[in-house]
Amino acid sequence: MLTSNTVCLGDDDIVQKCGVNVSEQQSADAAKFTSLTELMTRPATPTKAGLSYVQTGKNDCLLMPFTEKGLTVCSHYVPHPDIHAFVTCNGDNCVICALGNQPEMKFLLPVFDCINREVVVLSMSLSMRPRALAPQVFPVLEVVKAGRAQVMSVSRGADNNFTVKAWDLPEDADTGEETIKQFLAEVESGRLKLDSVFMSIPNETLRVLPWIQENLRIRGLA
Ligand SMILES: [Zn+2]
Question: Which of 11, 27, 144, 195 is the most exposed place for a label (fewest CB within 10 A)?
Answer without folding.
Answer: 11
